[in-house]
Amino acid sequence: MTSPADSAVRPGVNETFVLNLGPQHPAAHGVLRVKMTMDGEYVMRAEPVIGYIHRMHEKMGENRTWAQFLPNTGRIDYLSALHYNHAYVAAVERALKIEVPRRAEFLRVITSEMNRISSHLVWWSAYLIDLGGLTPLLYAFDDREKLLDLLEAVTGSRLTYTYFRFGGVYNDVDEAFLRGTRQFVREFRPRLKMYRDLVTDNIILRKRLENIGPISAEQCRKYGATGPVIRGSGVAYDVRRAEPYSVYPELDFEIPTRPEGDSMARYLVHMAELEQSLRIIEQGLDRLPDGPVLGKVPRVLRPPAGDYCFAVEAARGRFMVRLVSDGKDIPYRVKLRTPSFSNLSLFEETSRGMILPDALALMGSLDLVIPDIDR
Amino acid sequence: MKASILEVPRGFWSLLVGMRVTLTQFFKPVVTVPYPHKTLPIPARYRGHIELVVDPATGRPLCTACKLCERACPSDCIFVDGAKREGEKKKSVTEYRLDFTKCSLCGSCVEACASDAIRFSKDYNLAGTRKEAYQYDLVQRAAEEAKKP
Amino acid sequence: MNPTLDQLCEQFGRLVGTVPVPSKPPVPTASSSVGPALGLPVAASGEGRVAGPASESGAGLRPADQAAKMAAHPPPAPTGPIQKTDHAAKGYDLDVTVAPTQIVMAAEIMDRAGFGLDAITGVDWLAQEQMEVVYDYFHPTAPGRVAVRTRVPRARPEVPTIAAVFPGANWHERETHDFFGLVFAGHPDLSPFLLPEDATFHPLRKDYQP
Amino acid sequence: MNILTHEPYRLLLALVALLAFVGVNAMYLVLAERKGAGRFQRRPGPNEAGYGGWLQPVADVAKLLSKQLLVPPGTDTILFRLAPLIVLAPAMMCLAVVPFSDTLTARDVNFGLLMVFSFGSINVLAIMLSGWSSRNKYAIISAARVVSQNVAYEIPMLLVAITLLMITGTMDLNEIVRQQAGGFWHWNLFRVWVNPLMPVTFVIYFICMLAETNRAPFDMAEAESELVAGAFTEYAGMGFGVFFMAEYANIVLGSSLATVLFLGGWQSPFGVFSGVLWFLLKMYALVFTVIWVRWTFPRTQFYGLLNLSWKILIPISLFTLLLSSALLKLVHA
User: Fold this and answer.
1) The predicted structure's pLDDT at residue A269
2) Is D307 in CB contact (< 8 Å) with chain B?
3) SS (H, E, C) A127-179
4) Domain C5-51+61-168: assigned CATH number
5) Has residue D245 got a pLDDT over 80?
């Protein structure tokens, strides 16, 4: 390609039209609308228009007790509900200085990583649908079903788990869960190889993703893009290491990074994270101590006045809860800093001058969950 | 130049590898379950909508209408009313309405319950054509359940 | 460059010490920056909010500065402008309070130090008739989380935009404008973002009635 | 059957039979595709309508026929209506010269190959018209893509055809099949002593066929996740159904031609029991491969697709053309 961007942004000589991609479009994964100013197939300006499923979780937080807001957090990013539960629960624990039993912490880590795998699998399959490959979806969902079955047996729900509680977890796991999880880890490794054969090494996919939508580390920093996006740009930023929480400091895992910064780099980071999550699950299962799963929690929660932050590494990047308490039993302010919001804000700058399918390949690689953006 | 020429056979080979993967899957058995002809077992902890637990001794709900669940509910979908029966120390429930259209199945009510009087039902085939169908009268539901052998 | 917290404290100390007064010529940096920077003990305590003496030792500052500082430090936040906080207790390592006019300079300090923009949000302090704007920063390669905050009167909630420093601030500021009606002066487009396009209300204001 | 000897009646009957063949094929290939996709994805595919889902195509057609034929305001009504008509005709015309067996040909013409290629390229015109007349941005992008794609892939396809033409020395499809008699080592695909690159030629032909029929991974016309339904976005009911039928008719045609040109047509691979069954077997094996490819790969990027044609397929097919002409001149002269 001889720099299509030059001709696309040359003023005065082009006839442009506006393509309204969405809010109902097969590639938008929900109700994201992108107002694209196009010159032929070249995207001159892609302006995301968001808010179609805005639910004002932050206002809801100011209208219910600390405990009542907990189910909401799993519904922000429905694909990584446990990470969001974790951040909120841990922020309140931080405010109230609640001790969490070690068994509960390990269970949190194990289930969170299972949730990360299931979330990445949805991303992977949905991304391939964006790219026109329909079969991987079914394979990924086959694996994901096994995870969801395991999590459902423990939490009672398949998606919006609300498994974590202030001071621990909802209920203890049984032997069947531990056995099933080990079996899943065993069975999933060969599947990863199959995914590599079927998709990752595929020349068509490589041609579609390599050198598409490069994002520099500097851009990630300026836009606050985190998660696989910043790791795909060569920065080993992971909240699990940068602001260690739970029992992650005790566990041995790597932060996969790729220096290229293109869509393929983000893709490979996602795939490498699946393997790392498996490692964390294995270690968690090996070290899972006995003991209670719920610590001592005051009956009525009234965190002392002040503000408290807690960030976790959700499947899509840094998720932070900023709580402001005025000492009452309902929060004064709940700020939810969601990763997809910051990740999408990159899109307008980076998509300029790309052709439409490449822009969609870039958008997919950002791993967007629309409720996570709109909250 | 050499790399891009080599890329052609390598790329073609990667396509063949991919096709081998799908063909292997082609001859493997189906993994889906033909719902509704067959269904999967529901785990014991499945969180359906709530229902009242019936005391097997008396055949009446255990609920004492303490309204803890009503207060715990984030979505205001529970209404409980109770009255004292003659000769009994505790109140007993007379009305327990669940507005399932608002319920988000979070389970806060079950957790809040001090007397283990509510539990999750295993109903999941919850399609309907009218909104009113989801205003559950749980006392009536419990009474019907108690009648069953 | 991965600056230590102490270096950041010093930089912020210089910033807080030199409040630019729009109507008067700029304060000579030599005289005013050394004082607070040296006198900045930066309370590093496990319990977080312990007042640094710097805030009350404003004797060396001129009245205009003092007034601006008083505006920036209302009764509910009586502690020093720069505090090291315990990450385990608060979730951030450095808590900086600046005047609204210093927000862009604070962002530049963060930018130079290699921080990334985490989030921008507001808090409506109805009782104090103030709006707080909180800027969270994270560092992609080094540990350290910084919260920069400022307060503006509720009657005229206006702060300068930092979108020129951090382009990612564009969306966060639009969102904050949506929710709180905070005006980010110089922002290219403050039309409703998450709210419906004809929204004229600001739902996270404490006096908002649906 | 005296009447069959009269050419006009015979042709009429053959055309009706072909129409039925194409129609039934399109219906049941849709089912086969859905069933096949299901198997590739470890699920049963449509299985509710009729035993094992075999009435599904009937249900599909009934649904499509009962739908309102929408013509969106602002479209070029005549062209919008005309496009579905044009799209199906060329495939029918081409199938008329395809030898299903020794005797089973609608019209045995001695320039069959030429006819197939000339009619085959009309297909793209129909898709372009539909995209153009729809007054839809997705459709017009798709139309532009389809034209450049088809132009790009026509070239290697014709180069392959010329290579074959030089080897066989005839344009008569029946004659081409007859030359491949006597076992699978006589098929053009395996005639490596004439041209060692024959298998490569076949692969190029197959890739071009996928591209010409707008099948995945080259489905630029539809490109569901980018262009919604591409050129067919505005079509409803049977208007859309006809495009769907045309897609499968073109697959059948492409596979038939590949069978005739490379796989020995109705010739048995062992030299005995030749007949129409062998033809159908080979053709449907190729159709299965087309389905298999679709459910394996992601879609190519549009420029990647053009690059593949111009930078890889055309040079290679030019090289094979040169090689086979040189070999013909020097070795087999």
Assistant:
1) 92
2) no
3) HHHHCCCCHHHHHHHHHHHHHHHHHHHHHCCCCCCCCEECCEECCCCCHHHHH
4) 3.30.460
5) yes
